[in-house]
Design brief:
With 93 residues, the protein is mainly alpha-helical. The protein is built from three helices and no strands. It is elongated and about 55 Å long. GO terms for molecular function: sodium:proton antiporter activity.
């Protein structure tokens, strides 16, 4: 009974994360400013990372956890690069 509740909880979490990803994608497409688009991109990569973690828990496969870690690292670096580009107009000085 507890196992079934966990499976349903993870499934509901994945549906909610997919909905959050759709809203973030909408913000990326319709964002009025570049800052809004970057925040949408940050939200999208965080939700993608959480979706992979939920899928890894559901399937009990460790490859999804490693992939989520890579997405987190690349997303963080890209956020810093985008912020620096918006502040100064260039990434590499």
């Amino acid at each position: 009974m507890i196992g079934l509740a966990i499976v349903w909880s993870i499934l509901i979490a994945q549906v909610m994360l997919a909905l959050a990803m759709a809203f973030a994608l909408y913000r990326i497409i319709k964002g009025p400013r570049a800052q809004d688009r970057i925040l949408g991109l940050d939200t999208l990569y965080i939700n993608a990372m959480l979706m992979l973690l939920a899928f890894g828990i559901r399937t009990a496969n460790t490859i999804y956890f490693e992939t989520a870690l890579i997405i987190a690292l690349i997303g963080f670096v890209s956020s810093i690069a985008f912020a620096k580009f918006l502040m100064r107009g260039e990434v590499i000085e």
